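User: Teach me something about this protein's shape.
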Amino acid sequence: MASLSALYPKTGFVVPSAAAVSPFIDSSFNMGAAVGKADIVSALSSADQAAHAGLTIEALGLASVSMQPLSADEIATLTSASSTSTTRVADFIGNRLGAGATAIAFTSGKPSSAWVQLRIGTDAGMLNWKLVKTGDTSGCAGGWKLAGSGHLDMHMNARIQRNFDAAGTASFAREWAAHVELDTVLQENPAVNKIDVRGPGLTTFGDFQIPGSAGSKLQLILPATGYTHMRVADSNGAASTFYNNAEAIQSCQDLASLPVNTPGLGAGTACIDETKVAPGKIYVWTLKTPNGAVSAFPFQINAVPLSKAFAKANQASLFATLTSITPAKLSSIPSAALLDGAVTFNYTQSATYGSKMDNCGLYLFNGATPVLNAEQNAVGQETSCTFTTSGLNALASNVADPAQSGASLFKFTGPVTSGGLWVTTIVLGNQASSGQPYPN
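Assistant: First, the predicted structure itself:
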């Protein structure tokens, strides 16, 4: 890992060639059906993707158990409608350990592969990827190479959010992401229309305080038109009226502090019980078509979620501070034109906890109707973020792209009455997002 990271020095950085990266990646590499060795090599040798100065890939330790995607028998047991177990994921882990499915596999008494906990750069998440032992020592003297996770790219990051209203009053909320892009899911299997996530603390608002409750699986369903990520559903499987098109759920404890008449909040609203969340906990994601489960995989979290009290007391050290916006007023954003390069946020960060930028966002409304929602990748952009079409992580726009049916363009037409912005840092293993109105 040190040899691979050395290709991305903080000073004097030159984007490495595919030939320089290739020796670190095994031919068996996969991150789901559509991402193989060529794709990860391309990402690590492209400035538009992962290749930037200071990129580091660290090995944190061995996984606690084999993180291989589930077998057909394991999926059947985990999803059985007749099961009365209240700890299905714990049962699954116990069964693997009991069967000797440890993090290391041996051939002729020698290690041949290992599941290793990795952290890439300052990412809030942790990856469990397989490494395989080969005879090729050109990149690493031990012959070890990255082979990927065997499942599609996603993450479950802890988040702390700060939102300022028009009067400048801040409110805070804790979230856990369940983020996966629709195109990634459809590449895995074009018939998938739902993902079930099981694991510690996942429940519904109506159940989380009931002693001995089995909790509930989190359901992710297809996105609304124009959105790119799977979204949270209520316990009945319908799109959540509380979360709208979000892909992250809130702390059950935070929901309990909201007024009883909060729009959309009900007994079936998904949430996560913070008392049951801890680093090292494993969750299982199951991809489903209308005919049933087709694949499943384990995922391990590593973050200690930040408390609201800590976030309030340490705001300047956790959240990026916006210093200026271009254009300075929402009304100056050019309408009916591509916004590529037209909007820039400038900000500062604190070095107290090693804060690094992750993303910045822009959203526009006509009354209560969403007009545009854009998220820009800001990794490595530590002082400013300029929105560009090529750099967007996600986009939901009311303007259809005539060349790509169902796609949308990075522009808006018609009236915009209000807008907002956010900047997100990675700090202490959490995503810390700060949002505020866009001056009009």
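Now, about its shape. The chain is about 15% helix and 30% strand. Residues 88-98 form the longest helix (11 residues). If you'd like, I can walk through any region in more detail.
User: That's plenty for now, thanks!
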